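Can you please make up a protein's amino acid sequence together with its fold in token form to help me picture the idea?
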Amino acid sequence: MKPPRPVYVAGGAHTPFIGKFHPDFIWKKHPDFGKRENPGLEQYFRLVTDAVFADLGIDPGVIDRAVVGNFVGELFSSQGHLGSMLVAAVPGLKYKPSHRVEGACASGGLAIQSGLDMIAAGADIVLVVGAEVQTTFNAKDGADFLARAAHYEKERPIDPFTFPCLFARRMKAYFEKNGGEPGDVAPIVVKAYENAAKNPNAHMREVGMKLETAQAASDKNPNFLENEEYNPFLKISDCSQVSDGASCAILATAQGLEKMGRSPSDCSQIVASGHAAGPLGDVSDLTDMDVSRHAVQQAYSSAGWSASDVQVAEVHDCFSITEALMYEALGLCERGDGVRYGADGNTTLTGKVPVNTGGGLMAFGHPVGATGVKQVVEIHRQLHGLCGDYQIGGSPTRGATVNMGGDDRTSVVTLIEKA
């Protein structure tokens, strides 16, 4: 879909994404354990919106509408009704329309899409916030909560860690069809950690990953699934992080930019988007991200783009194989070549099309509701040279995001151009 009038990303912000192995994450061995607690959803809303309002020098009163992307607030935080929770965190939004959208791991992307819809309906300035807290329960309970993004009745029994197993299933199918072995995705994993080491907001910014560690299972990097068929096809290093955090973006029309005292030259323009959904629990081809591919095609068609127009990308890498399949869905390479495309260095910071420059879900982190918003903000930041040590060269002017929910059952694609 092409917006009926120009829509700009006026700015955005992230909190640090934190969780296990992050130096600021409070757990029983942290020196501040018992003295302070990790932020909750309301605190994350406040932190990230304070940051963007301060950066843009605006008051929340200029906002016309607000939308929150969040997946499982009711389970991890015992909190729903998050549109109003955002207003509680940001008093300047009192009486502004604000609601929450959910689409599993694509919740943030759906929030961006909802912001575009709001602008199409007449709003000039929209606040889009994505946030998730998911470190409040142990790993198996958390895996059960996250399994709600699958067809719970049909797919939950595959393994106590449902989603890792569903993507181990994809890994197995991929290598059976195309040849190779699970260790072949290791360069994609290493790239994620190398990029995160340059990113001050990344969950795994202080955790290194060597190629030999990512290639083979070991005591420190085990195959952990109980399902014997799929166990050999996924290691801990192949997984995204269980993270807490928030991201936000301000979307605006030209009139909205005038109200904020912003120039289009300071902004990025969303030129098109794509949104597709597939039947839950029914994947027709495990080697094809067909829903994401359809969303990509919608967006390309609306914008008049092709894969050759994409100079930088943020794609959903909930697992290492997912990133390889997303290369294919975006058309960066042919079907069956995604693993090789990544291994050949095409998507590094100095590669042909840098992908997940801040570390992606595997190393920047994956606070589920924040991810799709984070992706859009990261492309905006790359287009304006704001990424510091992980800024890519070449002065990119066009980028793309792909935010996926579940086992590629919901997908939102956003194409962004420097204004």
The first strand starts at residue 7 and ends at 14. The CA atoms of residues 333 and 341 lie 7 Å apart. The chain has a mean pLDDT of 97.
